[in-house]
Amino acid sequence: MKKLITLLLSLALLATLLAGCKEKGKPATEDPAVTLRYGVTTEPDSLDPFLAAGADTKGLFFNVFEGLFKVGTDGGLNPAIATDYTVNGDSTVWTFTIRTGVKFHNGAELTPEDVEFSLGKAAEAGYYSFDKIADVAIDGNVVTVSLSEPNPEFLTVLTSEVVPKDYADQASAPVGTGPYKLESYKPQESLTFVRNEEYWGAEPEIDTVVVQIQASQTALVTSLQSGNIDAATVTAASIDQLDASAYDIVTQNSNGPQIFVLNNTYEPLTDVRVRQALNYAVNRREIIDIVGSGYGVQSESPLFPGLSKYYNENLYDAYPTDLETARSLLAAAGYPNGFDLEIKIPSNYDVHVQTGEVIVSQLQKIGVNATIKTIDWNTWLDDVNKGANYQASVITISGRSVNPLVELKRYTSTSSSNFFHYTSAEFDDVYSRAGSELDAAKRVSLYKELQQIVSDDAVSVYLLDIAGLTALNKSFTGLLSYPIYGIIDFAALKTVG
Amino acid sequence: MTFLLKRLAAAALTVFLVSALTFAAFNIIPGDAASAMAGADATPEQVEQIREKLGMNRPLHTRYAGWLKGFVSGDLGDSLRFGTPVASLLREKLPVTMTLAGLSFAMILVISFPLALLTTRRENGITDRAASAVTTVSVSVPNFFLGVLIIWVFSLALKLFTAGAYVPREQSAGGFVAYLVFPALAVALPLSAMVVKFLRSAIFEQKREAYVRTAYSEGSSSGRVLSRHVLKNAVIPTVTFLGMIIGDILGGSIVVEQVFSVPGLGRLLLSAVNSRDFPLLQTLVAYVTLAVVLANTLVDIAISVIDPRIRVAA
Predict the structure, then answer these.
(1) A325: Cβ–Cβ under 8 A, 6 or more apart, which residues?
(2) What is residue B110's predicted lDDT score, i.e. its pLDDT?
(3) Scanning every residue of chain B, which has its alpha carbon at the shortest distance from the alpha carbon of A47?
(4) How confident is the model at residue B310 (pLDDT cuts 50, 70, 90)?
(5) pLDDT tens for residues B261-276?
(6) pLDDT on residue A209
(7) Which residue of A has its CA nearest to B112?
(8) What was the pLDDT predicted at A31?
(9) Which of B162, B174, B223 is the closest to A228 by Cβ?
(10) Do the chains contact at B178 and A187, CB–CB below 8 Å?
(11) CB-CB: which of B40, B44, B168 is closest to A381?
(12) Average pLDDT over residues A389-402
């Protein structure tokens, strides 16, 4: 009996412990320094800017690293490390004036030699068009870059990171020139960014941004509900679970086309009529309503609408849902009774799996018997991204550059990232002409032509630009929307009141 | 002494076999660390740079032999995914999961023993039947779902804790343990129910034995019969059972860590698999195996102390 009493007492003790937790959860409010807690679910793939490839990592470290130029919210370029530039008539010699008095996060003064070094790092990492740099010359604080062939859009790639040349620890303690510096990184816990007090530009208001790495979307939403974080990008379906009086929902583009990917070398998808039939059978509006709860922008171009200057507006609804046309195209191609199709989808993306389910039911209406096979991300990388071991898939290609040629390169016949296995002499020809066209207006029309070719050839079924919905605590404001990556611009955020 | 040595040798062999099997399985599944790290957006140059940097161009068996040699000599190498020494990752995450598992284990004891004693006062009595219903439900609820329920009730409705607001132990030891109480509850409840069911049937079994009747006929009080005779005999199979569920506790912790965003071994293990982080995964698997094997060995030793007959049989 005595033992029983002891055990009951321990139970009571446990209950007290539980009750005691209540005070611990409350955040300190007296602290004058402003901290923003931002929740994410992805771990940075590398802290070294030249090894990091993930769109989420790039979007986060937008605050830490700067290039000669910086992407603006409108997709234009703003001077950053370079204050201005001049270019010769055929766009082969570019001259940049380097900003003076810029300091790296480790206290070192930025020099033109650092710029030269960083351009070399970008070339090593295989960044688009850096292999065409023939020579870099330094004269005082002027850097002259000579190219081996004309590149009228050279500025767009100069958002590549500028880093100090005598610094070897980028992978563990990254050093840039941006408005925030990385103070600490605890794997699977958090990244802490603090304001760079020696920043050359306007001083940001938020002192500290703690980026919490949560285990799942569910954990992210509960963290928002419990007040553990101030902001996070969440799915459309979870918006209703949030307290509308505590959070503003900022709608952004996700900056990348969601695609029902078709392997152009897989029979019967080799036939353009079959691919067009699938395009006519898929109802994008229905996908947006069912999967995105109505959020999302229909888009049937291989480019995303955020690049508004180059986006081919005519492709917004290039293949309106038309089951009759779809059926007759299938019949003309010799498949009047449809065919079987396996769609491999990475299981870690709920949104793609759900989209796949809607597509399966839509294709049934034209007799195409599609099935979904969910696979893990690494298998997807092997089977779809690298090999041609698939029939169809659903994925979003994240926008990485304001240069449309970077985004469209994967459709060229020789590109290693052409997982559509699409080959078109016409596309290749227009692509190479677009790269060297010196007249800006003509260039834009070539960009639009490239999108038209991809659409006419029905390389895949282009669906939409998924909505990026960010919940932001009402005590903060100023979240900006950029056309690439999913940039979170800490420097623009402000407190309310 | 030979008993102890035999047990330890068996433990070492188990760990080796598990690690070799993990290694084999890891090389059958698609993908490698470089392509996993680089993702879909990397240039081929970036992937090659990563592969070179990670030393992944060496043949498989040399990599496994290298890891095994390092593991035995205490040099765990660097994690491919995080670029930091595996040892420092373990130093950070191991105490988290151990605390979570320890708390869960303590809760299981605190919940299950009094409950089992309470229900066994009378077979098929009201408390017995009520407890039996509760335990049947608890056993059937998956711990991750229980975790979501606990967050909903204790965090969002009752506001007893802030979901997701994990407190690092170097920041506040009390806050650290307090945050782990609820995840531990999610791990402990279904397992406690199992222990209650097990202990209950063991106690009833003993109560029906002839020696219990003899003890009563000698005039012993029911409390004395319970503590001196019934409980002592019922505890031996229960201790074995507790040893067996240590694996379940660790497995449960790994799942529940995801729900509560606890940065412990479970999340590390998951990330090691997803990012094909060979040195990290091998070490984690070896450690978890070692923990389970050691726990079971300790149970065997404990039982041999309680009941010397078992030692002879071994």
Answers:
(1) A277, A280
(2) 93
(3) B82
(4) low
(5) 888 988 899 888 888 8
(6) 97
(7) A7
(8) 52
(9) B162
(10) no
(11) B40
(12) 93
For residue B144, what pLDDT is reported? 84
Where does the pLDDT of residue A155 fall: very low under 50, low under 70, confident under 90, or very high at 90 and above? very high
Query: Is the Cβ pair B161, A7 closer than 8 Å?
Result: no
* Percent of the residues in chain A that have a pLDDT greater than 90, as a whole number: 72
Round to whole Å and give the CA distance between B16 and B18: 6
* Best residue of B35, B261, B268 to probe chain A, by most A CBs closer than 10 Å: B261
What global pTM score does this model have?
Answer: 0.85
B181–A21: do the CB atoms touch at under 8 Å? Answer: yes
Q: Is the pLDDT of residue B42 over 80?
A: no
Q: Using CA atoms, how far apart are residues B221 and B215, in angstroms rounded to an integer? A: 9
- On whether any CB of chain A is under 8 Å from the CB of B94, the answer is no
Residue A129 or A3, more confident: A129
B45 touching chain A per CB within 8 A: yes
pLDDT in tens, A112-143: 999 999 999 999 988 999 999 999 999 999 99
Full set of structural domains in chain A with CATH: 35-41+173-252+468-495 (3.40.190.10), 65-157 (3.90.76.10), 254-466 (3.10.105.10)
Are the beta carbons of B110 and A10 separated by less than 8 Å? Answer: yes
Residue B258 burial (CB count, 10 A)? 20
**What pLDDT score was predicted for residue A16?**
46
For A435, the token pair is 């790269």
> CB-based contact (8 Å) between B268 and chain A?
yes
Residue A23, amino acid: E
Looking at domain B91-288, its CATH superfamily turns out to be MetI-like (1.10.3720.10)
Beta bridge partners of A372: A343
Q: Do A7 and B166 touch (CB under 8 A)?
A: no
Burial of A453 (0-12, 13-18, 19+ CB in 10 A): buried
